[in-house]
Design brief:
Length: about 80
């Protein structure tokens, strides 16, 4: 199953949450939070674990969903 990394607004910043993490990471801007979430997702994919990044807007709507898949040695998604 894919790991879902969530970017959500806070009153004074943005959080990046991962399953099984005790506390979220907090950033001063949404762009910084998104960049951090994408780096984590890319690292997970490189390590053989598919993941998704869900970015939520200040109004609670899903603003973006980014899928990071792993690939076998022949370039096929796994």
């Amino acid at each position: 199953m894919d790991e879902v990394i969530t970017v959500e607004p806070l009153a004074d910043g943005w959080s990046v949450r991962r399953p099984n993490a005790e506390w979220p990471e907090v950033f001063s801007s949404g762009a910084k939070a998104e960049e951090a979430a994408m780096r984590v997702a890319a690292a997970l994919a490189a390590a053989g674990r598919s993941s998704e990044v869900h970015v939520y807007l200040r109004d609670g709507a899903l603003g973006g969903r980014f899928v990071y898949r792993t690939y076998d040695s022949e370039g096929a998604a796994s």
